[in-house]
Fold:
Amino acid sequence: MAADWNDNQPIYRQLRDKVVGLILDDLLAEGNALPSVRNVAAEYQLNPITVSKAYQELVDEGLVEKRRGLGMFVLEGAKSRLLEAEREQFMRAELPAFVERVKRLGIDPRKLLDKIEQVGEREDT
Amino acid sequence: MAADWNDNQPIYRQLRDKVVGLILDDLLAEGNALPSVRNVAAEYQLNPITVSKAYQELVDEGLVEKRRGLGMFVLEGAKSRLLEAEREQFMRAELPAFVERVKRLGIDPRKLLDKIEQVGEREDT
Amino acid sequence: MAADWNDNQPIYRQLRDKVVGLILDDLLAEGNALPSVRNVAAEYQLNPITVSKAYQELVDEGLVEKRRGLGMFVLEGAKSRLLEAEREQFMRAELPAFVERVKRLGIDPRKLLDKIEQVGEREDT
Amino acid sequence: MAADWNDNQPIYRQLRDKVVGLILDDLLAEGNALPSVRNVAAEYQLNPITVSKAYQELVDEGLVEKRRGLGMFVLEGAKSRLLEAEREQFMRAELPAFVERVKRLGIDPRKLLDKIEQVGEREDT
DNA sequence: GTGGTCTAGACCACT
DNA sequence: GTGGTCTAGACCACA
Structure:
């Protein structure tokens, strides 16, 4: 986690995205506790409320649960549910938009193949 | 043009993007006049200031010029300059982000090839 | 709206409930604007954020929509959806709990009939 | 006793309510010992302090007494005092709120009579 | 004018 | 220790 905040999006949203990334990358396993609101706030010099708001989003999304007086914990199945939801969103909305954009910009799709295939190779390795 | 506004982005930005789309798709040729602020405002039930702001962005980007008493006109070379700028932005920022996302979601890159190749074929036609 | 806050529940929740009450009682019709965050905050001497949080809850519940730069508006169908949801919740959870409590306290159900019937009469009038 | 904790109310309060229920239902007779703090804590995977807090509430309400080295015991008269207090609370606060809610939701009071009368019959049996 | 976000600092309830 | 709520005051984007 680096403390570099993008100004286009609220910090709490970026924080939420970071935690999601940690879960997807297996750096934050199911059942584990999220770093405490206070700790995160201190580490990044944020207001605890800002951190709280990020965590609350995760609770609302059903990825994290609050255990009163104990902290916030990654729920069982969080990763798989995340993967499924994000993949669905990707295939339904992001990919078509991407393709549309490629088309509109008149970019040679063959140029993209290189980039994309590199990913394939990395995955195979 | 449909009057469906996305809440994630300001309306004036979405309007600007629509005009850009029209130019890229040759639906609004260089030298032609943009629909008047007042017409657009009426059609989409928008505040004229919002429409003005969108048009002003296009002026600031050097794509459109205001001719006093006549309206706004697409400048010569607007399309090619647009293409270049957006392509640069695409290759520098959007493509890497896309590739990163594909990787993180663990999506089989081969599945994407189909979609992308369809574009290639359509372009070739 | 009286400015008497109960200490057992967060103010933003009570505010949300008040707005819901206004909608159910036809004091805030569908399509109408909610009083602005700033106005409510000033009137009740609250922090705008507190009011905002209440309004956000209503948005999340699908009862109210935000029109950017204009304010918050009661959605069409808000009242009927509210009625249905609250009735369902009442019949499913609150009524059984109430009945259970009556039973456990050994209260003569006939005493309740009087109270409840008064409501019936008032409704019929 | 099921170990299903509601998040709207503190666990120690829910625990207290369960014990009260046991007393009202004659499942925990006056003079009997409450299950030990440590047993309850183990059974429900709770912090013993939480259980202690629940028991302390009962002591403060004059329903239970602590006998050093022996445990907690239901006091004589606990049930009748409980009944009186809860009934008073019910008639003063809960019933009016219930009636108000019925009215606002526009629920036909006659439908409620059925439910309530069933209780009467069960009590008569 | 509208709502959204953030900080700094305080107090509270729960475990 | 944990998170939740609120205030006071500031700045921003949008219509």
Chain B has two domains: 11-75, 79-124. The longest helix of chain B spans residues 78-105. The interface with chain A takes residues 21, 24-25, 83, 86-87, 90, 94-95, 98-99, 101-110, 112-113, 115-120, 122-123 of chain B (CB under 8 Å).
